[in-house]
Amino acid sequence: MSMARRHITLQGVHNIRDLGGYATARGTQTAWRRFLRADSPHALGEQGQARLQAEGLATVIDLRTESEIAQLPNPFAQRDGVRYAHQPLFRALAPAALAAVGNDDGADPLLAFYRSALDTRHESLREIMMLIAASGDGAVMFHCTAGKDRTGLVAALLLGLAEVSAEDIIADYAMTEGLIAEMVAGFLAAAERDGRDVVAYARLLAAPAPTMRNTLGHLQASYGTVPRYLAHIGVPPGDIAALTDRLQDPAPHPLRESGVRQSRA
What we know:
This protein has helices spanning 46-54, 66-71, 95-98, 109-120, 122-133, 150-161, 166-174, 176-179, 181-193, 198-204, 209-223, 226-232, 237-247; strands at residues 5-8, 16-18, 29-30, 35-38, 57-62, 83-86, 139-143, 248-249, 262-264. It has 265 residues and is of the alpha/beta class. The protein has a single domain (7-251), classed as Protein tyrosine phosphatase superfamily (Protein-Tyrosine Phosphatase, Chain A, Alpha-Beta Complex), CATH 3.90.190.10. The chain has a 7-stranded mixed β-sheet. Strands 3-8 form a two-stranded antiparallel ribbon. Strand 5 (57-62), helix 2 (66-71) and strand 6 (83-86) form a beta-alpha-beta unit. The radius of gyration is 17 Å and the shape is globular. Residues 99-104 and 252-265 have low confidence and may be disordered.
């Protein structure tokens, strides 16, 4: 996996990362400052918002539910110079709602959820991909609450479309766990206060590598390649081509230095 600096550290967010710099099977790398995956920016202040815009942020796609947005409004929804779109992957999927998922047989609850998303949320995933393809110039930031599940699936599809190796896609997903530890601690503390099953909830808030490995295995076994999956769910060929082009950087270069402090992945 590339050790390039991709985590953008800003006060009020935990998990904003650039999808650039991953090697592809085509001998190129994914382009920097085209795609940012993130947790919810609701607590991101004016300075952080401005810094992201200075880094090229032009479009924000909010994957959260309406209730999540009502509780924690998106500051980019009304910000000049940023295109904002709300496209939920699920209608009810706040972290608290995930804690209600049963898991009595010891199976991986996240894997069941990710497989179900790939198999049943075709319309939502199609709309998300079409929004990204039509986003125009500048960087696109897509996010949910923790930047792990919904965001992780979209990131995996984009990296898979770019022909990034499965191991790098898995590592990109697993990287989240260390970045959201503070957020997870807060969720678990709230669950304990409410008398919920903290152990079961902790499993849902993890980002284990085997979960993404098995998710990619399911996608391959059921649909073949990511381009075939996107075609299967109805993403137009032109949009698939636009996404592929947007992901590619034909002239690999190191991430340019910026005023935003970044940590090593």
